[in-house]
Design brief:
It contains 9 helices and 8 strands. It has 246 residues and is an alpha/beta fold.
Length: 246
Amino acid sequence: MASMPKFLVSVRNVLEAEQAVSGGCDLLDVKEPNHGSLGMAAEHHIFEVAQFAQENKISVSAALGDYSDWSCRSDRPQFGSCLDFVKLGLAGLGKESNWIAHWSELLDSFSADEKASPNWVAVIYADWNQANAPEPQAILTAAVKYGCAGILIDTWSKESKTLFDFLPESEIESIGSRAHSAGLFLALAGGIHLRQLPQIVGLEPDIIAVRSAACEDHDRTTAVSAQKVRGFRKELDRVCGLLSVK
């Protein structure tokens, strides 16, 4: 391992952020799990978690939903510099021949009133066919061209499956290698279980992102638990330690 991956926990509000930090996460992400894979939380929750993260010197990102959530909306939230990264999925664009133009125009619209463009993370859905999203390698190519900061591989559907149910390890490894060669970081998510950590860590992601694993009963719609976060942190540290000596 070149370096130990950062441990990100997705939270819906500042109360969950406190639990996540108490449990030992490295990074925070704000999303509303009841609104889908990348469901956007209420703006006041995003600002509150961002403020909490700043006070605790932790980087924070936010999910802004999918392209289909914004295609018929003209309003755009303005978060200034309070977020380190933002991400937006491509569900609904899979059958569009000029999806790259649609996607880049939407991203640009979020920074129209900002002094500086946000740091975007491009999202690849492992179950991209089900999500009606563009195929993974094409998204990576577009992300490099647009100047994204990183790539997140996640699952669009949250019906008890993980990214390995949709993408083989060889494909994930290929995406990660291309991303790193282009200077982008790689984040892996999608129903990650403790038993999968050796497999996940072996793919050398820069970030391992969880929601359900940080909640009671592995249910992403329940609240984040410091105890669950602490247990994941302990196992992640153990697995990384074992792999580092091989």
